[in-house]
Write a structure and sequence with these properties.
Blueprint lengths: L2 H27 L6 H15 L3 H13 L5 H21 L4 H23 L3 E3 L5 E3 L2 H10 L3 H20 L2 H14 L5 H10 L3 H30 L9 H13 L8 H11 L7 E8 L9 E6 L2 E3 L2 E3 L2 E8 L6 H19 L18 H13 L4 H7 L10 H11 L3 H20 L7 H16 L24 H21 L8 H10 L7 H9 L6 H7 L3 H15 L12 E7 L2 E5 L4 H16 L2
Parallel strand pairs: 3-7, 3-8
Antiparallel strand pairs: 1-2, 4-7, 5-6, 8-9
Helix pairs in contact: 1-2, 2-5, 3-4, 5-8, 6-7, 8-9, 10-17, 11-16, 12-13, 13-14, 14-19, 15-23, 16-23, 17-18, 17-19, 19-22, 20-21
């Protein structure tokens, strides 16, 4: 078999295994299927395929053979694809039978916890005094935006109760099993193993970056806590009151301008005007919250985009949010998730290399690199010019400047808190996985969570208690949360570059093609820092985010005023086609599609949401 034929065969083998796993993943996570055994089997087959250490030498031999290919173009393409596979197998290879057995046991154990958690009912007491079910997004929205303290407290207590349920239902054993697996792989603990796998650095190297950021933002964060307590009393620092105390009223004021019924149209128009092209991808969007559905937005690609022997294979990408359109705050939150996951989809639909290993979300793809794409897109929703153009009430009136200013005045003092609420997770997970098996008790881990929240957030309990974060249970997402903070650093660096180059971001048609060229096309064949350097001319730099955190509210508002003034001088151009086949579903129910047009799809979706939820 020639090296080129070997590459093509490897591509097809992976596609089959990957598609099966991802289809099971979607159906079980969406609550469409309860075939958890089938899902576990597919996940195990995928893991075992990539765990084959023998593939590393096999691919190296094929790389040597590829050097003799006479056609220079075929030679370069074959070497490129084989190097991609070499990196992927090196990221996943498990050499010892003991480690392989432990990994398979982990997959089974995680599936069992997932199934139990999916059936576990969370409840809180609503405004009417009724005990009702509430998913994580609904509880979080109540904590942020409900104007009754008793409701916020009940929702927050539900998250604390979830922590204790997890501690009694397998989480501690999961930590022990993960650490045992990591030790067979040559690492001190699972956190150290995961950081090397996902970000290609040691945990010590990671914490040089994190501790620098913690120090840079510590004082501004503490100042905001002190000022809030001075203004509203110490009760404002309680977990169920904290976020509402500085954002609750303004989010209620914003709510009429961002109904979830308009979210799909806003995404289509905004991404279209940015000239983001999905390269013929097939997109399936499941956007509404329901019982049994995974309680966090995500994006995954059953078919990765790539060139198969010169023929373009368009991606198939599914993504989800958990909107409850009739709840205050859910419109903006749901729209944010739609933009975030839509950014992921744009990235994974636009990797233009010759093997599917370059265009999937797993290692060697850096989580920080992947999240940079999505978080750049959702960052636009905080910009005053975006809000003036897209946040419109039922009569078509734009959100008043006064509400935008209130958003800035309320949020900017807590910008450092927002980033530190990401930072707190790796501090907790690192310490958690450094604990010995004997130290891992429900009491000690709960205390560690509260101590870490106090150290990083300055709060006795976080509005989002640490162990209620779903990422901590998921194999690929656990010990990877720092990727969000690293991504935010890159997002602010990217925003600064575009602002310096063009003067604005909202509806800038230059942005989509530049993101595609420099961030997306090469996939994981280049490092996160290298992709940033390709666009901006400088490597990864955390200072842009730190500077944003340390601005005063007045400084931030002056910048937003400039955006509003500049918007009035720009013409509104028609959105370009997203170049995608789009289907909107609610579980197994079809809600809308763009079979006729994007506009028709948005009309269908809006009519359904208004009819079902009222707005």
């Amino acid at each position: 078999m020639t090296a080129t034929a070997y590459l093509n065969k490897l591509n097809q083998q992976y596609l089959t295994i990957h598609r099966t796993k991802e289809d099971f993943f979607w159906e079980t996570y969406m609550g469409i299927s309860d075939d958890h055994q089938g899902s576990t089997k597919a996940q195990t087959e995928w893991t075992n395929f990539l765990s084959q250490a023998s593939k590393i030498n096999e691919i190296r031999q094929q790389l040597e053979a590829a050097e003799t290919i006479p056609d220079s173009s075929e030679k370069a393409q074959t070497i490129q694809g084989l190097n991609g596979w070499l990196a992927m197998f090196q990221s996943h290879a498990i050499e010892s039978p003991e480690a392989g057995a432990l990994k398979n046991d982990l997959i089974q154990f995680e599936a069992e916890i997932f199934e139990k958690k999916q059936k576990h009912v969370l409840t809180y007491v609503n405004e009417k005094g009724e005990t009702v079910e509430g998913s994580l997004p609904i509880l979080s929205s109540a904590i942020r935006a409900n104007n009754q303290e008793s409701v916020r407290q009940s929702a927050h207590q539900a998250l604390l109760d979830l922590e204790q349920w997890l501690l009694q239902n397998g989480f501690l054993e999961l930590v022990k099993k993960r650490n045992a697996f990591a030790r067979t792989m040559g690492y001190a603990n699972f956190f150290d193993y995961s950081v090397v796998k996902t970000e290609h650095m040691t945990s010590d190297e990671l914490f040089v970056i994190l501790e620098d950021f913690e120090q840079r933002t510590r004082q501004s964060h503490q100042n905001s806590l002190d000022a809030l307590a001075q203004e509203k009393g110490n009760d404002a620092l309680k977990g169920h009151n904290f976020v509402y105390s500085f954002s609750g009223d303004v989010m209620r004021d914003l709510d009429p301008y961002v109904p979830f019924s308009k979210s799909l149209r806003r995404w289509v128009e905004s991404f279209g005007r940015l000239n983001i092209d999905y390269s013929g991808a097939e997109l399936t969007l499941d956007l509404l919250d329901r019982k049994g559905k995974y309680p966090n937005g995500f994006c995954h690609g059953p078919i990765p985009s790539f060139y198969d022997q010169g023929e373009w294979i368009a991606a198939k990408v599914n993504f989800t949010s958990n909107a409850k359109p009739d709840q205050v705050g859910c419109g903006y939150d749901g729209m944010n998730t739609l933009f975030h996951e839509g950014g992921h989809a744009a990235h994974f639909a636009n990797v233009k290399l010759n093997a599917p290993c370059f265009s999937q979300e797993f290692a060697p793809t850096s989580m920080a690199y992947a999240e940079t794409q999505s978080m750049f897109c959702d960052s636009l929703l905080d910009d005053a010019d975006w809000l003036k153009r897209y946040a419109l009430d039922d009569a078509g009136n734009p959100v008043p400047d006064s509400i935008i200013q209130a958003m800035v005045n309320n949020r900017q003092p807590f910008k450092a808190y927002a980033e530190r609420s990401i930072l707190v997770v790796p501090y907790f997970e690192r310490a958690l996985y450094q604990m010995s098996d004997e130290q891992l008790t429900a009491e000690s881990v709960t205390q560690l969570a509260r101590d870490t929240e106090m150290r990083i957030l300055g709060l006795a309990c976080s509005p989002r208690p640490l162990m209620a974060i779903p990422h901590l249970l998921s194999d690929e997402a656990s010990c990877a949360y720092q990727g969000y903070l690293l991504a935010h650093m890159a997002v602010y660096q990217t925003r600064a570059y575009f602002t310096e180059k063009f003067g604005y971001l909202c509806d800038n048609p230059e942005i989509g093609p530049l993101l595609a060229e420099h961030y997306w096309h090469a996939g994981n064949s280049v490092s996160h820092s290298e992709s940033i350097k390709r666009l901006t001319g400088e490597g990864f730099n955390a200072k842009y985010l730190a500077d944003a955190c340390n601005q005063t509210a007045q400084q931030a508002w002056e910048k937003e005023q400039q955006k509003i003034a500049a918007l009035a001088e720009r013409e509104v151009h028609a959105p370009a086609s997203l170049n995608a086949t789009i289907t909107i579903v609610d579980g197994s129910k079809l809600l809308a599609s763009n079979a006729i047009s994007d506009a028709d799809m948005c009309d269908q979706f809006e009519a359904y949401i208004v009819k079902t939820y009222g707005r």
